[in-house]
Design a protein that fits this description.
hydrolase; globular; HNH_nuc; 105 residues; 4 helices; 8% strand; mainly alpha; two-stranded antiparallel sheet
Length: 105
């Protein structure tokens, strides 16, 4: 049987979320991933750093939120979740994510 995760509204993306999202983006206007690379890009998405998977406590935990631009949210973040570590490097070519295999002891 296929898993159905429910509609966006059923998962918590309600008018309360819409308001919280706008407030968060007003306070954190730049994409965190772009900033890590030394770039300046306006954030348009509030991303859950750790996927909440329906856990409303994690959903509303603002320490679990990060501002992202649409390209980073829609592609980079999805790949990171699949791989288990972040992609991307600093200007010297060093991986940004401490969980990257190159950064493991």
């Amino acid at each position: 049987m296929a898993y159905h995760r429910g509609s966006a509204r059923q998962r918590g993306y309600t008018s309360r979320w819409d308001k919280a999202r706008l407030t968060f983006l007003a306070e954190h206007p730049l994409c965190r991933m772009c900033e890590a690379r030394g770039e300046v890009t306006t954030a348009v998405v509030v991303d859950h750093i750790e996927p909440h998977r329906g856990d409303q406590r994690l959903f509303w935990d603002t320490d679990n939120w990060q501002p992202l631009c649409e390209p980073h949210h829609n592609s980079t973040k999805q790949r990171e979740e699949h791989r288990g570590f972040g992609i991307g490097s600093d200007l010297r070519g060093r991986p940004l994510d401490p969980k990257h295999p190159w950064n493991r002891a």
